Amino acid sequence: MTDDLESWPTGRLLSTAARLVEQAWESTLRAHGLTHAGLVALHTIADGPRSQREIARACRVTDQTMSRTVEHLERSALVTRTVDPADERRMRVQITESGNELYRAMIELERTDAQPTAVVSDPGTLRSLLIELVRSAQR
Amino acid sequence: MTDDLESWPTGRLLSTAARLVEQAWESTLRAHGLTHAGLVALHTIADGPRSQREIARACRVTDQTMSRTVEHLERSALVTRTVDPADERRMRVQITESGNELYRAMIELERTDAQPTAVVSDPGTLRSLLIELVRSAQR
DNA sequence: CCATTTTACTCAGCGAGCTGAACAATACTG
DNA sequence: CAGTATTGTTCAGCTCGCTGAGTAAAATGG
Question: How many CB pairs under 8 A join A and B?
Fold first, then answer.
């Protein structure tokens, strides 16, 4: 049967699992006015401002995609963008007060709430296998 | 450091790994005029025609998304769509000759080529953990 | 049998990924 | 120092997810 997950290639299982898990978490995020992509970006500037390119690299995303994500964050006033005076090609992206608050709240939620990925029999092994995968597929 | 994958929540690792792996495989597919979404859909009708809703359910995707995917496949002549005479609400989606050929070739590629997910230390465990995840997150 | 509900699909619109191409600012180099 | 290359960002345009709303056909039920 083609419905049988056993017949699916591993890559397809990976994509589908990611989509289903992300959706569950995303519905919570949206209730707080944030998206998954936005949260990931906030994560990378929680400790201090960075250029868009740096954020993009850290998130494993193209510059173009990050450009738009940061634009959304700016419109929501979670982030400010200023031209870096030291290098006027660079945008200095800095988290705002309300951005930091929301970020901390979401991190707390992420930590406290039962993670959708925790339902699995061996979450630790899953984690380390995924880390292997991301490491091996560098951009 | 926020770049350190160890600090990422499992869900984020899952999404990122899926994206990176899918991209690697997708570049091969596109060279043959097919997308990942298209291939998954073809998989479900390789054994015989089905309605769009059935295909959508099998692929864990909404009807709307599948509607568009099938439209693309039809435009590429990999699939034909006809109104089901027994129930005129249903679209009977059938794989074409060239669709079948391309599908078989891609399956062969998928089987023969070193899968991007195979680089991991224990691909079998990864597979079974992913199957657990997809099963637990039903729509 | 007609009215209502359910089913199957489409349309519109959005976020998030991607590529390719353009642009301005900086850095290199002869 | 002028000319070229590199860097950082944006614009345009595509696919693929999603939701919400609309339509036509079929099923239900009073």
Answer: 158
